[in-house]
Design goal:
7-stranded mixed beta sheet; 10 helices; 309 residues; Alpha-Beta Plaits; homodimer
Chain lengths: 309, 309
């Protein structure tokens, strides 16, 4: 195999009470990447379409992730990467994770799969670190493993793939505003009350239970974030109205996707998820805020090979 | 039915990363209670053996829990209660929960079961409130429902019964020292770092996943308490040595049971659990600290009817 074409899906991290640890993979939204094996060692990013991102290997998350892979698994070959961005950078649905994951997944395939997808996460995390300044895997894990994933620990890396009800659909609304990572971070408190910490962990534990038992009601009751949302939601236009609308129209619950500005809602069934997305759009329209909406089942597979030769 | 004799089991709450929300039921350790229907309204505690506890209805957790039941479900009958304590008060394995649960369970049976066991928790919580000053259900839920339970929320009460691997055994060591609730509380910090709160919730989520999937390794990796144990463990003699010994002898993990001074360990299989209990005992013996040890499977049933007439 000399060349592989991939679909690298978007993902939702910071799933409500699962801040920093829970993520899930989306389906129809994503980037395409072509990775090509060459005879010249190293990684070269030869084309990026759809976003204005650096072609310099060590200034691009895909390049950085790929280099981390090759550092642990040196090859006489090199790799050319083409990136066709379908995910907007800074939208909060795992743009950098898709590119980081795609690079290491593609190189791994072209080298005969020396690593499992789970093992690839640690290389891709180097890309995430470049993008956000911190090692995190909560977008990468669902992209590389599919479905819902829990990051129990980063050091050592311990990822658990979770089951989920088959009728679980996500509605995403991406208000096209710029939300600086530094702002998303600076509103967070370094300390929280023990009481709220316990409340958050009880909701996450109950959400996990709901995912294992296909209990939509329990999932709905558990989608409560008392630690982060009260602060970050202020950075998203009409957050409370959007959240109320989603609930009113049948969503199980909503939250900030990643560090925003996108919001996710989870619903039982595509029909409800479509309604939820439409109604949320109706709230942003009169405000003059440009936005995109997406509806997606939870993607059980993650990253996909479109073609190879 | 005029009279019922019950076995009211001990339980472990504050299960490591599940502080305040996770509990499980023990098997061979517990109180016995006799509840007798009489013609004189009200509740009378006529006998307590094994512990020096108040016979006054409104100064005894069983009496208080029973009164809470009768307040919502008035009866022309009254109830006599005899309590044979097998659980030491203040040992940290749910002494007050056993008595509170027993009272409401027995009255419910004698009145033809107007409530489910889950519904009885809210009455029994009044007993717990009297004993500890706070409404909590993390011991009551496993006593009344059996197995492992998660308290997602107290207000409204939302309890989830969790599955668990069938070979899961607990070793309990109860060092017979007095540990004042006020001391157990005063060492806790009102605020914790967001980072540790997330770490704790990730471990709890992973523990829940391990319980659903019979994954002993994951259960073992997840039994980590970064919020409470670092402070409370100082109140328990040789805590770290006991914990290290348990791990060395094959336990999956250990923690403080309730607010101490008892410690629990979880192991795969009775044989390991027995070894763990013995070896922990060997650590306390030379210190001159009197102690009890118990080994128990996780009790899947909870409170049991011994006989009725």
């Amino acid at each position: 195999m000399r060349e592989i074409r991939l679909f690298c899906p978007a993902s939702v991290a910071n799933v409500s009470c699962g801040f920093d640890v829970l993520g899930f993979c989306l389906d129809p939204i994503g980037d395409e990447m072509i990775i090509r094996k060459t005879d010249k060692p190293g990684i070269k990013i030869i084309k990026i379409e759809g976003e204005d991102l650096s072609l310099e290997t060590n200034k691009n998350v895909a390049g950085i992730a790929g280099l981390a892979f090759l550092k642990e698994y040196p090859s006489k070959n090199g790799f050319e990467i083409e990136i066709y961005k379908g995910i907007k950078a800074g939208s909060g649905i795992g743009s950098s994770a898709a590119s980081s994951a795609g690079a290491v997944f593609g190189i791994n395939e072209l080298l005969g799969k020396p690593f499992t997808n789970n093992e690839l996460i640690k290389f891709a995390m180097k890309g995430e670190e470049f993008a956000s300044g911190a090692l995190h895997a909560d977008n990468l894990a669902p992209v590389l493993l599919g479905g819902f994933t829990l990051v129990r620990s980063i050091e050592p890396l311990d990822i658990i793939r979770l089951p989920f009800p088959k009728k679980l659909f996500a509605s995403i609304i991406h208000p096209k505003i710029e939300l600086k990572t530094s702002d998303s971070r600076s509103v967070l408190k370094e300390k929280v009350t023990l009481k709220k910490a316990i409340q958050q962990s009880a909701n996450l534990a109950a959400l996990i239970s709901g995912l294992y038992t296909d209990n939509y009601d329990l999932i709905s009751r558990s989608l409560v974030d008392v630690l982060i949302e009260p602060y970050r939601s202020a950075l998203i236009p009409s957050f409370n109205e959007l959240k109320d609308s989603a609930k009113k129209n049948g969503a199980l619950g909503s939250g900030i996707s990643g560090s925003g500005p996108s919001m996710f809602s989870l619903s039982k069934g595509r029909k409800t998820a479509l309604l939820v997305a439409n109604k949320m759009g109706n709230i942003l329209k009169p405000l003059g805020v440009d936005f995109n909406t997406y509806v997606s089942k939870v993607n059980p597979i993650g990253i996909k090979i479109i073609s190879s030769k």
